Amino acid sequence: MSISRKARKIIAALSLFVLSLFIWGFLIEPNRLIVHSETIVLSTVNQSRPLRIAAIGDIHAGSPFINTDKLKRIVELTNSQQPDLIVLLGDYMVQDNFYRTHIDPEIIARILKDLHAPLGVYAVLGNHDSWFDGNRVMQAFEASGISVLNNEVKELRHDNRSVWLIGLADAWTNKHDIAGTLKQVPPNASIIMLTHHPDILNQIPNNVQLILAAHTHGGQVNLPLLGRMIVPSQYGQKYAAGLVKENGKTMFVTTGIGTSILPVRFRVPPEIALLTVQGL
Known about the structure:
Elements: H1 5-28, E1 34-41, E2 51-56, H2 68-80, E3 85-88, H3 105-112, E4 121-123, H4 127-143, E5 147-148, E6 152-158, E7 161-167, H5 178-182, E8 190-194, E9 210-213, E10 222-223, E11 227-228, E12 242-246, E13 249-253, E14 271-278
Parallel strand pairs: 1-14, 2-3, 3-4, 4-5, 7-8, 8-9, 9-13
Antiparallel strand pairs: 2-14, 6-7, 10-11, 12-13
Helix pairs in contact: 2-3, 3-4
């Protein structure tokens, strides 16, 4: 039975549509880089000057489209936002892709050292960094002047007030010590906690005003109506992306920059998150 002219047009249109989605998802969107601006209000009582934080996660240097030129572009675009503080939320390396190009952590660190912010640049490690060689990644970053907080704290001074930055070890591959690390800060302190993995939210006490996380890539693919089908989290889409407010706690999860498993992004563009935090 022959196919009618109308059916052939429909098939051709559908084929073109599928091809367009493939081109966008595998060739165009993963190569984008946007600034995702978000305002986070923690308190309406504290009238201190808002804190501008640039949060960068899941660079996965060596994954498709993430070469040294892209790293330099990340640095340039981040610095142009003039944040008060820059935080790097883990997974600078990529380990699970047969199509990756290897970039040594020393090279990554030498490029990222050009990030600048008045309050500094601080990092935590992710699971891919540990799978590669966590100590080597940490040493490379520290040698380039980027402080890696591994169950450690740092006191920052913002608007004549102390803000305590806490960086946790990766929850998947290392021993993260929430209680022990929190003991290093004074009572009633203003706290920003950095963690690669958002699934630990329910383990964090309410005296932590803000948690910043990465890891999920926002599922990489966000389909209309169906949502984010595959998210590396035991909670599914719950902590996949963006601002989360739960049980008196506030967390922001960046969808990151690189890719893992498959080199695809659809409706989840690579992002530098620019957070304006009020009431800290």
